[in-house]
Design goal:
heterodimer; A: alpha/beta; Rossmann fold; six-stranded parallel sheet; four-stranded mixed sheet; 10 strands; B: alpha/beta; two-stranded parallel ribbon; 8 helices
Chain lengths: ~450, ~200
């Protein structure tokens, strides 16, 4: 299910924008989620203090991460959990596969884990003869549609219910033309219940891992992580190294922020704390680096590792809402994804830090106060310096630098521009000018400020 | 091998140590203990739970008997509700055996007013899968067992030793299809909360 496209964000966004009513619907749906977040946040007078506290806890985590990782490992091991370490995606996938292979397991149920999306685990396991079924409803829908999730919290937010109805009709045998969310959800419930009851292995993500106790917490509304884990003989939990928090009591901060920021709910339906395996079963946890330790070393970008994956920055982002999650061609889309992805592959994701207006709304809603829009701006500078910026943009920037550096060229450029706008607007208001897409070009003034000022001065002196 | 490599890289790249914040202000600020039951009731109801204030276990039995047909499989973890299968006696059974459970009844000592969540540990559940696999879930809680927010909830939990624990705040739900809220995703289709005075 990896995105194999080589198109960049502007091109993929242009594809998404072909269907204007759908773009508007996508935009409004996400804005509605953002508005629910605001209502939930404004109900707590201590909201800003809560954000600040969460931010400081995460700073402490990043500055003591090696200690917390060792502490977590020791305590989890004491609890009977088996801990594995994976340097990269390939090693993570191999560990999962070998755990299944050793037990002769060929079918697994998986609840939401963006890390496994980042590692392209499903593809890897499929190639090795393992059948994986995603159990989160949204993820199951995109899996059946053979697409990656377009949003970390709302995986199929880009799909209309009629399209989901068609997918369910084809794969799960629902009635043709049925698009009632209640009936479609019931169809998925019956289908996935059968899956939960027959899978010997369950893989889950991790929302928080507590160094002090060795336990980890998974948050869902559907109960799919629990249904999978409690019925399987082996529970594999995949987590990035940044999921650590120091103490159990800190959950009292993060669980208050997470869902309010994500969907506007005061908490998810289920916040499950796994501390020890139940009798007769195993819990394995895979701690994954995959570039995170490098990001930790990038002073300007390490704050991105504070992220708790609530998705608030996506819901509020005017670019995300109007370009869709798939246009980011990476597992974690939106503003946060655009500062995480270039760390993994600067060349492949050089376009993403430019997929922003730098309006700063993402930073304002972030529950752990990541300076997202500042980091987007800083990535642009790094990308240009390293020579990865898009060609057209580089040329335009060079031309602009030259023009701005020379008063004569600047005056000439301005004059030419105004003349063109006045007498030949078709020269800029055409399809060759990407700025003109979805926009009207402004009317040009008759004269520049410089010209006006010179004239005024002349008039005064006379 | 990767373990050493990762830990060495993290150690090398992590910034100079920063202190943990003081949580006291937040804990005190949120510790408002008025009308906890009515606050809980409002939030839990908005989250899709059915909340009943009752005076006795007999009242609970009457409600359960009205809501559920005779003969359906009901598992109860409460001594006081002994007309049903007792969770303690079946807790070692394979979880798959509970696939036909219609109702699980559990008891908790901790509820959170700000979000409708109820804290249940493996001991309260009998078997971990019981609150999830049942078609319906009911939880009994004393009226004095509520705290204002998650901050106080974790103060109550403290350093408790459990194999598994969960905050459950309502019925299983999803809004993955066009953001339409549907109750009854994979877990219980309803959560009934009995607040016992």
């Amino acid at each position: 299910m990896s995105t194999t496209t080589t198109k960049d964000h502007p091109h993929l966004a242009a594809d998404f924008n072909r269907d204007e009513p759908r773009v508007n619907w996508h935009d409004e749906t996400l804005w509605w989620v953002r508005a629910k977040r605001d209502i939930a946040a404004h109900k707590l007078p201590e909201w800003e203090l809560l954000r600040e506290t969460a931010s400081q806890i995460k700073f402490n985590v990043l500055s003591n991460l090696s200690t917390y990782l060792e502490q977590f490992e020791a305590n989890a091991t004491k609890n009977g959990i088996i801990v594995h370490w994976a340097a990269d995606a390939a090693e993570h996938n191999q560990i999962v596969h070998s755990l299944l292979e050793q037990r002769g397991i060929t079918k697994m149920v998986k609840s939401k884990s963006m890390l496994t999306e980042e590692c392209h685990l499903n593809d890897y396991l499929k190639d090795h003869g393992i059948d994986v079924i995603d159990s989160d409803l949204g993820e199951r829908i995109v899996q059946l549609a053979n697409e990656p999730p377009s949003h970390i919290v709302l995986p199929c937010i880009h799909k209309k219910k009629e399209e989901i109805g068609d997918i369910f009709h084809e794969h799960l045998g629902s009635a043709k033309g049925e698009s009632d969310p209640k009936i479609l959800t019931e169809t998925a419930r019956q289908h996935l219940r059968e899956v939960f009851l027959t899978r010997r292995a369950a893989l889950t993500g991790v929302n928080f891992a507590v160094a002090e106790t060795g336990e980890f917490v998974i948050c869902t509304n559907e109960g799919n992580a629990d249904m999978g884990a409690h019925l399987a003989e082996i529970h594999i939990a995949s987590m990035g190294i940044e999921k650590l928090i120091p103490e159990r009591k800190h959950l009292g901060v993060f669980l208050r922020l997470l869902t309010r920021s994500a969907t506007g709910q005061p908490i998810t339906t289920y916040s499950s704390h796994f501390s020890k395996p139940r009798d007769g079963s195993e819990i394995h946890i895979i701690i994954v680096d995959n570039g995170r330790s490098i990001q930790l070393g990038r002073e300007e970008f390490r704050n991105s590792l504070k992220c708790i994956r609530c998705g608030a920055c996506m819901n509020t982002c005017p670019v995300y809402r109007k370009s869709g999650g798939h246009s980011y061609h990476t597992a974690v889309a939106g503003p946060i994804g655009s500062i995480l992805a270039p760390n993994l592959d600067m060349k492949k994701y050089a376009d993403l830090p430019f997929a922003s207006t730098l309006c700063g709304s993402c930073s304002n809603v972030c529950p752990v106060k990541i300076d997202i829009h500042d980091q987007l701006y800083k990535w642009r500078q790094v990308i240009v310096k390293e020579g990865y910026s898009p060609k057209a943009k580089t040329m335009a920037m060079k031309a602009m630098a030259l023009t701005l550096a020379s008063p004569a060229l600047y005056r000439m450029g301005g004059k030419t521009g105004r003349l063109v706008f006045k007498y030949a607007p078709f020269a800029v208001n055409n399809k060759l000018n990407p700025w003109y897409n979805q926009r009207e070009m402004p009317k040009a003034p008759d004269e520049s400020f410089g010209e006006w000022y010179a004239k005024r001065k002349g008039a005064k002196n006379s | 091998m990767s373990r050493e490599k990762i830990l060495a890289a993290v150690k090398f790249n992590q910034p100079a140590a920063l202190p943990l914040p003081d949580m006291e202000v937040l804990n005190t600020l949120t510790d408002v203990r008025t009308d906890l039951v009515s606050k809980y009731k409002t939030i839990a109801t908005a989250g899709g739970s059915f909340v009943y204030e009752v005076n006795s276990f007999d009242e609970i039995k009457t409600i359960i008997n009205n809501e559920f047909k005779p003969g359906v499989k009901i598992i109860s973890a409460l001594d006081e509700l002994s007309d049903y299968i007792y969770a303690e006696t079946v807790k070692h059974e394979d979880g798959h055996n509970f696939a036909d459970v219609e109702l699980t009844v559990l008891r908790t000592q901790l509820g959170v007013a700000e979000n409708g969540a109820l804290w249940l540990t493996e001991k309260d559940m009998g078997s971990r899968v019981l609150p999830f696999i049942a078609q319906h879930l009911a939880v009994v809680i004393g009226k004095d067992n509520f705290v204002p927010t998650m901050a106080q909830a974790y103060q109550v939990i403290g350093a408790a030793d459990y194999g598994y624990g969960a905050f459950i705040s309502g019925p299983s739900k999803t809004a993955d299809i066009e953001q339409s809220l549907v109750i009854g995703a994979h877990g219980p289709r309803s959560l009934s909360v009995f607040i016992l005075s």
